[in-house]
């Protein structure tokens, strides 16, 4: 199994306010890293005739109000699961 976790980050912004140059800086780099990793890993998987690839983003942020709301929904879901 291969686990890929490589990216660069920009400060969190609302997508409507994010400058296009930020998008063009981050996404080609992040996508290229994933592509390069998968390309290399597939050669090994072919040789072994098996395998799995997991691609992960280790850091994802939303603007602060949405982030707070997401945390609150997570806490509420945990409380509901704990109830008998």
Structural class: mainly alpha
Total of helices? 2
Radius of gyration: 18 Å
Average pLDDT? 76
Largest sheet: 2 strands, parallel
Low-confidence stretches: none
Number of strands: 2
Strand order of the largest sheet: 1-2
User: Which term fits the overall shape?
Assistant: flat
* Beta-strand proportion: 5-15%
How far is it from the N-terminal to the C-terminal residue, by CA? Answer: 38 Å
- Binned, the helix content reads 55-70%
Q: What's the SSE pattern?
A: EHEH
List the helices and strands and how they pair.
Layout: E1 2-4, H1 20-48, E2 53-55, H2 64-82
Parallel strand pairs: 1-2
What can you see in these coordinates?
57% of the residues lie in helices and 7% in strands. With 84 residues, the protein is mainly alpha-helical. α1 (20-48) links the parallel β1 (2-4) and β2. The mean pLDDT is 76.
Brief write-up:
This protein has 84 residues and is mainly α.
Which key terms come to mind for this protein?
84 residues; mainly alpha; two-stranded parallel sheet; 2 strands; 57% helix; 7% strand
